[in-house]
Amino acid sequence: MDDVLVVGAGPTGCTVAAEVARAGGRVTVLDRHEAPSPLSRAFGVHARTLEQLDSRGLADELVATGTPVDHLRLVGRAGIDLSRLPTRFPFVLMTPQVHVDRLLERHARDCGARVERAVRVTGLTQDDDGVTVTAGDRRWRARYVVGADGVHSTVRQLAGVRFPGRAVLSSVVLADVRLDLAPDDLRVDVDEHGFGFLAPFGDGWFRLIGWDRRRQVGTDVPVEDGEVAGLLDRVFGLAPGPTRWTSRFSCDERQAPAYRAGRVLLAGDAAHVHSPAGGQGMNTGIQDAFNLGWRLATGDLDGYERERHPVGRTVLRSSGATIRLMTLGGTRGRLARAVALRGLLRLPPVAHGGAGTFSGIAIRYPGPGPVGTRAAAVPLHGPRLAERQRSAGFVRVPAADRVDGGLGLLVRPDGYVAEVSP
Description:
6-stranded antiparallel β-sheet; alpha+beta; single chain; 8-stranded mixed β-sheet; 21 strands; FAD/NAD-bd_sf; FAD; FAD/NAD(P)-binding domain
């Protein structure tokens, strides 16, 4: 019997699996796809996620696959400056999700997790001792099951967990298009009919996300060349170049009321889904996984939902508010954006707070004083904290009796402060 069975081999599932395996647990990952999708979906990796990946020795390799961007241009002259963030990674990394998928699946395997693909889960039952998962005539048994199988999670449905929420946007256009722009040009803008977002993908290619309230069709309707050209011209004043890929999607705001049902736990899009505003989806899932992985390895599961459910709720609210601000039409919309983007964001405290929220480094969990805060910036004599955390198991720092007037910190495997002494 496995200690943990993970359903879903995306970034969330593979991170959970790696965390359990590196702590000595027996873990298997099942995924219905034969291989990671080569098509780019998510593409922004934020500073806090990079800090956590750095603690496993993965960040530098991932950064080499993409484009670091330290400034987001918003509507008009507003923007979010990431360059002054107190982190080793004062930027958002623009890289297609396929690079993240491959890196984290390899990492999970290297840590000792088994990954089985082309397996479609069809059944799940749990008892006092564990969970039985079936796929056709095959059967797996584990102490715990993690559903990291996306917004249409089979695990969530089989566990009987509701997924309440509502539709937010329909007929959103995705396109990878070649443009004559600076290689780190990241921008968002609006016009009277909708909005557009451009992110650099390297080699002159950019990801376009656009929405036009006048063009509301099903997600199965192909994107026409004129739609891409129209969005680029109308929203950004840009002439389109070659297009190599297009798609169309809709998005909801939903969150499971509980992230745990007995021996079944939910993470990533299986637990929460929201609009693409802010690029938080993949990042929130990976951070769920870092929080859950060490808890599965130690049996300390009670804190997972207590800490991560409020984070998911905050992301839903902030991304929802952002998308409503961007899609509000008429005079009301223009005034609201002027106040929020051209007024408030120019105030230093608001701008600094916005950068911290956008990057994820402002996330903290309940606790007195420094307890619950990220420990990435803790000053140490010798190697950085992230370097100390790269070896699996316990990290022994024999200096508790030699601290002169300082504090001793107990840091969790996910990089947050657990205790402070004296």
